[in-house]
Write a structure and sequence with these properties.
The complex is a heterodimer. By secondary structure, chain A is mainly α. Chain A has a domain at 190-296. Chain A is 61% helix and 6% strand. Chain A is built from 14 helices and three strands. Chain A has a two-stranded antiparallel ribbon with strand order 2-3. In chain A, helix 2 crosses helix 3, helix 10 runs antiparallel to helix 11 (215-241) and helix 11 runs antiparallel to helix 12 (249-256). Chain A is flat and about 75 Å long. Chain B has two domains: 1-38; 41-71, no CATH class. In chain B, 54% of the residues lie in helices and 10% in strands. Chain B contains two helices and two strands. Chain B has helices at residues 11-38, 46-55; strands at residues 42-43, 60-64. Chain B is globular. The chains are: A mainly alpha, B mainly alpha.
Amino acid sequence: MLLPSQQLRDLAKTFDICLSGKQSPANCDVRYRQLYWLMVFDAKGELRSACKLGEQLGVVTKQGFDVPNAFVEIVEAGSRSKTTLAGLKRAYVESRGSLASFEALREKLDEVHGVGQMGIAAFLAETADKTKDPVLSRARSLLIEAHACSHQVINYGAFSRLRQGLVEFIDEHPSHAFTPKLLQPLLDTGLKYSFDIGVKCRSYAKQWSGGDVSEARSELVVALNKQVAIKLQKANKQLAELKPTAYARPQLLAVVGDAKGLLQAMETTKSYGVFRPIHAEWRREAEAKAKLSSSK
Amino acid sequence: MRGKSLHQIPLSVSLCSMRFLAPVIAVVALVANLAAQDLPYKEGNVDAFLHAARANGRPAIVLFNFDAKSG
């Protein structure tokens, strides 16, 4: 037991302690919300460290500490961390978005296991105009957002916003050096829970080509087509190896756009919680595709 | 008084019980209050908590997904 321990009472002489329940502090968005998290703030109220508490307690107790003393060790180590997220945000603006300051932010996000990641994505977009290359800063924002979404944000709205953000960015900045790097996050994360990604990518390619046939746009379309072909090939291969009742099967059927297969699989699939809007979209689009192919 | 419903209990007995119960309730409430004051942590409203810690120049620990039962 952690809470009634003498160690916690001693720790409270130095640190104010809050059990926040399900409420995460402002700018400290948390993924894997079912886990216990520890966040350590300095006297200025800046996040210095964060960790998945159960996991970290497991590591430290193996070194011979009991639970209350392991907790004290984790807090003290966290409070010794040299940087804060807020400090690194200031450094990013002061350096006008230098690569080194961006890398330092990313490293800190890794150190705090992604706590505050969506906040950093928003910050990069909001402060873009204060940097030397505002377009690059917006691209970095999308990259961080995609990384956050790929870590257990099964949220229909978050994926939809990310997808829209990536597609619009690529359309607006086809010749920026960073733009091709956003194709992979679009395919891997933005379209992770989408139905028939081949059709969706053809529609993006059409949008990006528009009336303009610049070399940059053509190269993007070629790269997208190549990457989506690889993605579909992989998904089809995985599907061939899966059992009919496998958990991952409906998602793969959706990705490859197998309307009939998906509708059959979903007859026995119960939609719950975060998957409800995603499954509703799959059903809607699969039914439309099946109807269209039967009328041909 | 077994088998009697509440409205059958004489008023004098009810008042007598309350006279004994009231101080007990007050003591329990006082002890609970003192215990709450003695806790080394606060619960809920994390932003107000962090604001107060910052105003007092104190470092702070937040345990997310925790309540008194979790510990």
